[in-house]
Amino acid sequence: MLLLALAPRAWLRLPQLKRLVCPRTLGGDSLRMRCQLLSRQGPAETGKQGQPQGPGLRTRLLITALFGAGLGGAWLAARAKKEQWRQQRRTEALRQAAVGQGDFSLLDHRGQARCKADFRGQWVLMYFGFTHCPDICPDELEKLVQVVQQLEAEPGLPLVQPIFITVDPERDSVEAMARYVQDFHPRLLGLTGSAEQIAQASHNYRVYYSAGPKDEDQDYIVDHSIAIYLLNPDGLFTDYYGRARSVEQIADSVRHHMATFRSVLP
Predict the structure, then answer these.
(1) How far apart are CA 50 and CA 166, in angstroms?
(2) Is pTM, for the whole model, over 0.70?
(3) Would you call 42 exposed, middle or buried from its count of C-beta atoms within 10 A (0-12, 13-18, 19+)?
(4) Which residues, 6+ apart, have CB-to-CB distance to 169 below 8 Å?
């Protein structure tokens, strides 16, 4: 009952409350209209009206893209500088360690004297083995030949010279080497020599070999290192490939070395 009694009085005073919220002075009708608009807007809308707008989505994406491109460029520059530094160190190491080392003076399968200087300016893939080897040497020589054939089929790449050096000079004469290499590749060069010459060449390339005991037929197996060596056009040892490396892996490695080769000799 008390609320009903007070209600008419509150209703009569409502125009006065409106005048307090939206006075007619200092703005007239336009200010009253603004007050009405504000009274219709929720808190979120009035907040947007009162705060400055930030950058648009497109602007933010552009800034992010530019920032990412800057980071990517810095990373590529640092990587290139690191690769250049690594290549310089490798070049210096080759110049100090390999010039005048890893040499050989042998006879090829045609009876002509050969030394490392004869192959200056050529890429060389070289393997040490022996003609009486039952399986490993034929397999590795076949792999070497396949790499050479794959590379020589690609226009623009220099030819790779394949070389086979025996570690069994007692049985691998010039004639024996000539018969053996003809089964692999027409450019495969077989090299042999005296026991002392073979020992020197093997030592220079850190190749281990040791002849086993002879059987009743005077046959024997030679235990030796199994690796294919890559020499660059300076005649320097550049890389080596064990039995686990496939033809494709060796060919890819040789291509990479060809692409990055810079002569260190005058």
Answers:
(1) 90
(2) no
(3) exposed
(4) 192, 193, 194, 195, 197, 198
